Amino acid sequence: MEIYVVRPGDTAESIAKEQNAPLSAIADLNQLEYPYRLAEGQALLIPGGSSDQQKQPIWTGGYAYPFISPWVLRQTLPYLTELLVFSYGFTEEGDLIAPSLDDTWMLEEAAAAGVRTALTLTPLGEGGYFNNRLVTVLVGSRQARRNLMRNLLTVLEEKGYQGVNVDFEYVRAEDRDAFTDFVAETARRLHPWGYYVTAALAPKYADDQPGLLYEGMDYRGLGQAADRVLLMTYEWGYAYGPPMAVAPLPQVRRVAEYALARIPAEKILLGVPNYGYDWTLPYVQGGPRARTLGNVEAAQMAAACGTPIVFDPTARSPRFQYRKNGAEHQVWFEDVRSWGAKLELVRELGFAGIGVWQINQLFRAGWEWITDLAEAEKT
Question: Does the reported pTM lie above 0.90?
């Protein structure tokens, strides 16, 4: 496959003719809706013949909420090695709290597609926010941990999960070692039953990096404790912050290289965002949050507004601006070029693969491009 960047005057029909590719295949691959409006600077994936080039297998994981569309899940599963269901919570006593919507159907779909499944364990409290007090209580109570392990084993067996993904965020500095011990204990308790344990790590780049998001993350210790780690290398551009790329490549690389110095490469998954944000300008700190939008939705918006998409050469991410109801907006999102840049980093550093947050919106071109560049491993 190849990437084609839309030029002034291009139409979907003219691109199909120039690239000698069926218009229907281009439209399907890039999720173009009739009448196939395009934005200048939009990156399109052009279908091509099969390649005999040797491809490096990688692990491809994707987080999903139980409210994901069954159609989107079925469309995405063929690209995945692992489906991570988000999420199971817990009480101070170690009792599990299941998702508000049933996840059984997701596991059945994954099993039919030959995809592994992991239960994502989070300390989410009221309102869906991470509650680090829950973490403090859990890691400090032997009884609560034992109860949680028993409950985990019960649910893993009953539901048919293959593993657990520990996603504890905003861990307090004073809980750092106890949290690492908790991950190690989880692995010790689950391994004899054939389950694996992964840990999601906040994107830090220095041992002494200040901030509640980072101080409780011991990369070296967690890398030893877990079977794999997922670097949450996204959210530099976020809903309440100023406009910027969600996962600018220089920052992603900085975290990745820090992790590589402390964790074996074959244990590391690079986090990849599957979304963007739409900010109202001028940005005002404490003002309205940016709107989350999908990658396909963002490209469609640029085409509808007739505004060009610019690919930032430093961030290696696309962006555009448009005007609506008298207000200026700036959008940063992901496309096949930005996903490809992250996969290049994965291959350069020898990482095990990627973990995508999250797959509730279909990005077929991104998945096809990843698959074309590196054959997905399902073992």
Answer: yes
Contact by Cβ (8 Å): 318, 295: no
Residue with tokens 């009448």: 35
Q: Cα separation of 259 and 241, whole Å?
A: 25
Q: Which of 40, 82, 169, 334 is catalytic?
A: 169
DSSP, collapsed to helix, strand or coil, labels residue 328 as strand
Find out if CATH 3.90.1150.10 is the number for domain 59-276+335-373: no
Q: Residue 157 — left, alpha, or beta (φ > 0 → left; ψ -120 to 50 → alpha)?
A: alpha
Q: Give the chain's residues under pLDDT 50.
A: 52-54, 376-379
Residue 13: count of CB within 10 angstroms of its CB: 11
Element at 133 (helix H, strand E): helix 132-139
Compute φ and ψ for 209, nearest 5 degrees: -60, 125
Is 266 annotated as catalytic? no
CB 315, CB 250: distance < 8 Å: yes
Spell out the domain ranges in the chain: 1-54, 59-276+335-373
What's residue 128's pLDDT? 83
Q: Please name the residues in contact with 13: beta carbons below 8 A apart, sequence gap of 6 or more.
A: 23, 36
Tell me the DSSP string of 33-84: PTTT---TT-EEEEP-----S----BEEEEEE-TTS-HHHHHHHGGG-SEEE
d(CA 181, CA 319): 42
Question: How confident is the prediction for the chain on average, in pLDDT?
Answer: 95
Which of 314, 345, 316, 319 lies closest to 332, judged by CA?
319
The class that CATH gives domain 1-54 is: alpha beta
285 CB-side CA count, 13 A:
0
Residue type, 257: E
pLDDT digits (tens, 9 = 90+) for 76-85: 999 999 999 9
